[in-house]
Specification:
The protein has about 200 residues and is α+β, with helices and mostly antiparallel strands. Helix content is about 40%, strand content about 25%. The chain has seven helices and eleven strands. InterPro entries: cNMP-bd_dom (IPR000595), cNMP-bd_dom_sf (IPR018490), Env_Response_Regulators (IPR050397), HTH_CRP (IPR012318), RmlC-like_jellyroll (IPR014710), WH_DNA-bd_sf (IPR036390).
Length: about 200
């Protein structure tokens, strides 16, 4: 399949914050983020958001189409304006038939998301709120490779990701700051004593 044929299948869009890109009520499709950010979330039984992940440049959503799953249980809302491409389920199957190597790449992304979801569930299994927040921060140090970290989402979204209220998250960040484990300003966090923070997780 030539590049021009692929481009004919893909819909290019520039989307602004607040735009709903996908939802359980919309026809399933593959979404590729070129620039900007998308918040992926579910609604619990009370209609409250549970943030699952934040998509950025190069991320893909909708790999379940690989398995013939034409339904979606998640919502995608644009957080930061940017350019995104979408591909219908039918056109996606056509593309896979001509570019089977894409299936392996998408399966890898699907596997990575599964690991991220498992990690999120491990956070939620920690009953102590301070330890839940601390564990998340230690993981961010490991993934970002430095002790001066940038939280990957807004504080209110991080709160729902960790199943906390924004007030509870702020309170526990302040408590860790009072213990001299970190300094925090908005989404910028400097871990001052990583060893002590890690030890605090097991006290």
């Amino acid at each position: 399949m030539e590049l021009t044929q692929i481009n004919n299948l893909v819909v290019h869009q520039y989307l602004t914050p607040g735009t709903l890109v996908f939802s359980p009520l919309m026809t399933s499709r593959l979404v590729i983020v070129h620039t900007g950010k998308i918040k992926v979330y579910q609604l619990n039984a009370n209609g409250q958001e549970q943030v699952l992940r934040i998509l950025g440049a190069g991320d893909v959503e909708g790999e379940a189409l690989l398995f013939g799953d034409l339904t979606s249980t998640v919502y995608g809302e644009v957080l930061k304006a940017g350019e995104m491409c979408t591909l219908s389920g039918t056109d996606f199957q056509v593309l896979l038939a001509n570019k089977p190597q894409m299936a392996l790449q998408l399966l890898d992304q699907y596997h990575q998301k599964t690991k991220q979801l498992e990690r999120q569930l491990s956070y939620l299994s920690i009953n102590n709120k301070e330890r839940r927040v601390g564990t998340y921060l230690v993981d961010q140090v490991k993934s970002q490779g430095q002790q001066q970290i940038t939280l990957p989402m807004k504080l209110k979204d991080l709160a729902t990701y960790l199943a906390l209220t924004p007030e509870t998250l702020s309170r526990n960040l302040a408590r860790l700051s009072q213990k001299k484990y970190l300094k925090q300003h908005l989404r910028q966090v400097e871990i001052l004593n990583l060893a002590a923070l890690q030890a605090n997780l097991f006290d």
